[in-house]
C-alpha cells in the first residue's frame, strides 16, 4: 500500500503557500497555529512555526496539515515566546521534503533569522549559481534560502541587509522575517502576492489574508503596500519604501480561486468579487437552462452571481466529500476508475431531466471537467452547459503558482469549441478578460498597463523571467530526494 499526496482529480492551479507573523503576544505560537489553520487552503503539503522567547528561537516543522502538526499540546509547549512566524506550503520551487519546509532558519552574525516566503523568485537559479560559485552552501532546494545567503553576505543593519538582498532579486514575494529585534514584512514592488497588516489590542500581526485575523479576533488594518517594508518592534511600527515605484500588478487569480471567499484582499471582498464575475459571465454567455449548479466549492459564489443575473434557479446539484484531502491511500486500478466520484457526487433529485449550467472557476488540464460533465449526464441531466469564471488558462505562472507546463494546459492546445467537445459538454464559455476586469470594477483591461497580473490568461508577464531566459543557469538542482 502506498500513499499519494495528490488527490485524484487535482485539476486546479495551486497557490504556493501562506505566511503569518505576530509580535509581542504571550500566546504567539498558538495564534500563529490558528492563523495558519485559517490559511490552510493556500498550502496543504507542510507547515512550520518558529518562535522567539527573548533568548533563543524554537522551531517545529513537518509534512502534513496544520491541524495534524500543531494539535499536540507537547509540540506547542516547545514553541514558547512572544513572537512567532508560520508558513503553510504547496511546493513550486523545491521538492516536498522536510528540509524545504518553512520557515527557514539561519544563524547569522547578528543572530538568528527566520523567514517565510509566499511567491516565486524568477532569477533564483542564476542567483543561486552565483552564490554557490562564491562558496555559499545551501541546505534546501527552495528559492527562499537565497534571501538568507544574500543577507549573510551583505553589511549594515538587519533592515539594510534585507533591503540589499531583495534589490538583487526578481519575482513575486510576500515575506515575513523574524529576528531577535522584531518582525518584518515586505511585498514585492508590483504587489503580485498579498500581505495584510492586522492588530489585536497592542499586538501587530501580518498574514497572507485577512481570514487569518478573524479566527483569533484581530482586526484588519490595511494591506501592506507594494514595495513596502514594515518593521514591527518594541518601538512600534515603522514603514520603509526602499524600492523604485512600479505599476501594481496584483494577481487576479486571487479573486477567482486562491483566496478564501471570506477574505478581503487588496481592499476587496473576495466573495463579492466572485459574485460579480458570475454576473458578468451570465451577461456574456447566457443560455436557456433550468438550473444553475456550482462545481463545489470554488464555483459557488460565481454560480450564485450567474443565477441571480440570469434569473435561473440556483441549486446544489453536486455534493462534495470534504473528507478527501491531499493525502490518500493510493487506490487499486479498479477503484481509480471511480475518479471524480471520490470527491463529488451528483444530486440526482436536482439534475434529472433538467438543462444544467455548471459553473466552475477554471479548466486547467480538463480532466475534472470531463468527469463532472459525465457524472451529471449519468444522473439524468438533459443538457450540460459549462461556464467558467476565468478566461482560458493558456500560459504557466512563474510567480508562485503551481502550474502545469504549457503543453498540459488544455486551452493552450485547443480552441473553446474543441475544449467543449473534449469535455463532452453541450456548450462551453469562459468569461472574457475584459469581462473579468469589469467584474473587478475596471472598465476594461488597459493593454498598455494592465491593472492586474493576468499572465496565465494573456501571456503578459510583468516581471522578468531571468531563469527561464538564461542558458547559463542549471535547469535543476542536484539533490531531489531526502
Can you give me a brief rundown of this structure?
With 482 residues, this protein is an alpha+beta fold.
3D structure, described in words:
The chain is α+β, with helices and mostly antiparallel strands and 482 residues long. The protein folds into 2 domains: 7-249, Glutamine Phosphoribosylpyrophosphate, subunit 1, domain 1; 269-458, Rossmann fold (3-Layer(aba) Sandwich). Helices cover 27% and strands 26% of the residues. It has 18 helices and 27 strands. The strands form 8 sheets. A 7-stranded antiparallel β-sheet has the order 5-4-6-3-12-11-13. The chain has a 6-stranded antiparallel β-sheet with strand order 7-8-9-10-14-15. The protein has a 4-stranded parallel β-sheet with strand order 19-23-24-26, sandwiched between helices. The longest helix has 15 residues, at 270-284. The chain is globular, with a radius of gyration of 23 Å. 52% of the residues are buried.
Number of domains: 2
Can you tell me the residue ranges where pLDDT is under 50 for at least 5 consecutive residues?
1-9, 326-331, 478-482
What share of residues is helical?
Answer: 25-40%
Stated plainly, the CATH topology of the largest domain is called Glutamine Phosphoribosylpyrophosphate, subunit 1, domain 1
In the sheet with the most strands, the strands line up as 5-4-6-3-12-11-13
